[in-house]
Amino acid sequence: MTWWRDGVIYQIYPRSFRDANGDGVGDLSGITERLDHLAWLGVDAIWITPITVSPDTDWGYDVADYTAVQPVLGDLADFDRLVAEAEHRGIRVVLDLVPNHSSDQHAWFQEAKAAKDSPRREYYVWADPKPDGSPPNNWRSSFGGAAWTKDDASGQYYLHNFLPTQPDLNWWSEAVRDEFDRILRFWFDRGAAGFRIDVCHAIVKDKELRDNPPAEPGDHPYVFRFGQRKVYNAERPEAHDVLRRWRTIAEEYDPPRLLLGETYVLDVARLRHFYGDGDELQLAFNFVFLHSPFTAEGLRTIVDAAEEALPEPAWPVWAISTHDLPRVADRWCEGSVERARAAVLMLLTLRGTPVLYYGDELGMADVPVPPEQRRDPVGTGSYDAGPGRDPCRTPMPWAPGPGGGFTTGNAEPWLPLSMQPGVTVEEQRADPQSMLRLTRDVIALRRAEPDLTKGDYASLPAPEGVWAYRRGERFTVVLNLSDGPAEFDCGSGPVRIRLGTNRRRDGEDVGGAVSLRAWEGVVLERT
Ligand code: NOJ
Known about the structure:
Layout (H helix, E strand, L loop, with lengths): L2 H4 L2 E4 L15 H6 L1 H7 L3 E4 L3 E2 L11 E5 L6 H13 L3 E6 L9 H8 L11 E2 L20 E4 L4 E4 L14 H16 L4 E4 L23 H6 L12 H13 L6 E4 L6 H4 L11 E2 L2 H4 L5 H14 L7 E3 L8 H4 L5 H11 L5 E5 L67 H5 L5 H14 L8 E4 L5 E6 L3 E6 L5 E4 L5 E6 L8 E2 L2 E4 L4 E6 L1
Parallel strand pairs: 1-2, 1-13, 2-5, 5-9, 9-10, 10-11, 12-13
Antiparallel strand pairs: 3-4, 6-8, 7-8, 14-15, 15-16, 16-21, 17-20, 18-19, 18-21
1-deoxynojirimycin binds next to loops.
């Protein structure tokens, strides 16, 4: 078994998982405290969003020191303890690597900015203004506005594809490449099982800094809304040299370390490039899937396309929520528990590695965050684009009552606690019908039945609104993603519901057809 192919990865937003020291912010020791729960749930690895030193203008994605722990989260000793305790329970720890940009507070940038002839200058992307003083090209920041900020001291602009406090690193620089080799090894040596790589698709920029072309009406809606195609500041061919270099380092370790890319490419066919010839990423996130509507037709089309586009040894990876989007309970499920149950059943039965976002196993919804309590730069100040990403980053609801089992009763949690009735770990662990128990049971079923991990995938003919797919020899998953009842023809031979979103049907023998209520999903087994 290769753990990252057969296993389930669980994403943790560390400030919001569990606060061990009562300051209202989650921390590494808090994660360690909850490892027994994660082992009970059955996950194989946790991916923790950045834990390194950061001024937190983008909550850890602006790194000021790549090899030290952000003090509010703990220290290196806490990290070592987390890795050791996790290993003891068969859980790997995957970290987040942020190579596209550092913080403007990083010593590299401070030195680069201080003197044009500093050896650090080349670590970042600097360019002269156009003759009229405007930015060197038309690139837009992913967070809005120009991707360039003028440094008055030198008269040059520096590039930032996100906030001005996140200057882009220059991946044409050999010195930058060497720095990151060291960073990878630092964490791999300490026992990190791999990295999720931030902005993995866009680290290398066009050397000539050419203008991006405008978006066209036929482009993916996200691209169209952004207004330009990121032809010259993303998906550059030279990025693959870097990925190969990192894969070589990852393979020096036993077991090889995992490279899981944030490959924000809105075309499934282009995803395959990131796997190289089995010598780049082992896993590349599929954002087309994340942005799909929650419909049988929409999802089937994307998953079938991914199956086609990613032949072995490439291996798909699936997520239904992240720390950057509204939670699946809202985005896809409009608050319906039945839909959320179907979504989790789907996530855990597709061919590929599922990445479960903390709280989704409870059916946790976004938590409204009043404007005065907003923390995310995308929801505040000049980037005020609505509620931002805070609502999907709120503390894990462990138990009812003050502090929610996340922090102590008298501490102020850094973001508001969820008040959703019945959505706590404590309540759901005790309820055999709960979403948490459903999630745990599907994970256990995956482990017990290799067809659900290694078995091939084939989508099957199904009525409108129903998505059915075969997994391996014996299993068929049928999801009724519609508001009305549906019937699926199971063909001949005895079939039983091995597990369903309606747990009362587990073990039910079905004849030639299975009837499903709206938003009901089942795993059928040929007996
Ligand atoms: C993607 C991360 O997931 C997001 O949270 C962050 O703001 C940007 N990259 C910039 O690092």
